[in-house]
Design a protein that fits this description.
Helices cover 50% and strands 16% of the residues. With 232 residues, the chain is of the alpha/beta class. The radius of gyration is 20 Å and the shape is globular. Bound molecules: erythose-4-phosphate (E4P).
């Protein structure tokens, strides 16, 4: 343990890693990786794929047996709820309804909680917003690390604050580190104690890499070849 680092109470559940994309090739590849257990999408990611949201979510649902966040785009709680019920029908065991951090979004969040439909409140940039989403019974809350860092704030500090609020009061909402840009973001999010990190394909693929692993493997392979040549 690093000197001076306080050991936090052990959590009941393990941290999960989701892929943050709507690209079907990336999801197909990542679905074979044993450490990827869910998908998050948003309207901007869907727009890159040239398919409707329904088509993309249906295809993802065939590949991933885990939480799949599909975002609503209506402005009123009523509109969001109508959209949410349609999306939810695609695969009720896996669909999570992504809602905006607005009063209307939080009204819809509470209603979906009452209907037993999981939610992910997105575009969270402050501890106060996270508190409101926790009080509205969000299943997941997505604080955006990269977008905060890009604008001169500190995304990891926000995560630490939200994790503390959750622990102070025993809220059930799961914290998703979102807008992840680097391996370091994932590492720091894990140390902060988030429940999930949702990670773009390129960063997910980099998590396994370390130059000393590559160098060590090369040495082991060369040495194994020497032993193999001794075999009779
Ligand atoms: C979260 O669910 C969002 O889809 C995502 O993390 C946004 O990331 P960006 O800031 O890279 O667009």
């Amino acid at each position: 343990m690093v000197a001076g680092r306080k050991r936090k109470e052990k959590k009941k559940e393990e941290m999960k890693l989701f892929i943050d994309t709507a690209n079907l090739q990336e999801i197909e590849e990542a679905s074979k990786w044993p450490f990827v257990s869910g998908v998050t999408t948003n309207p901007s990611l869907i727009a890159k794929e040239g398919l409707t949201q329904k088509e993309v979510i249906e295809r993802i649902a065939q590949m991933i047996d885990g939480p799949i966040s599909a975002e609503v785009t209506e402005e009123t709680a009523e509109g969001m709820l109508a959209q949410a019920h349609e999306l939810y029908q695609i695969k009720p065991e896996n669909i999570v309804i992504k809602l905006p951090m607005t009063i209307e979004g939080l009204k819809a969040c509470k209603k979906l909680y009452e209907a037993n439909i999981p939610t992910n409140v997105t575009l969270c940039f402050s501890p106060a917003q996270a508190l409101l989403a926790m009080e509205s019974h969000a299943t997941y809350i997505s604080p955006f690390l990269g977008r905060l860092d890009d604008n001169g704030w500190n995304g990891i500090t926000l995560l630490e604050d939200i994790v503390d609020i959750k622990r102070n009061f025993g809220y059930e909402s799961k914290i998703i580190a979102a807008s992840v840009r680097s391996v370091d973001h994932v590492q720091q999010a894990a140390i902060a104690g988030v429940d999930v990190a949702t990670i773009p394909y390129k960063v997910l693929a980099k998590l396994i890499e370390h130059p000393l692993t590559a160098a060590g493997l090369e040495t082991f392979r060369k040495d194994a070849a020497k032993t193999a040549s001794l075999k009779k």
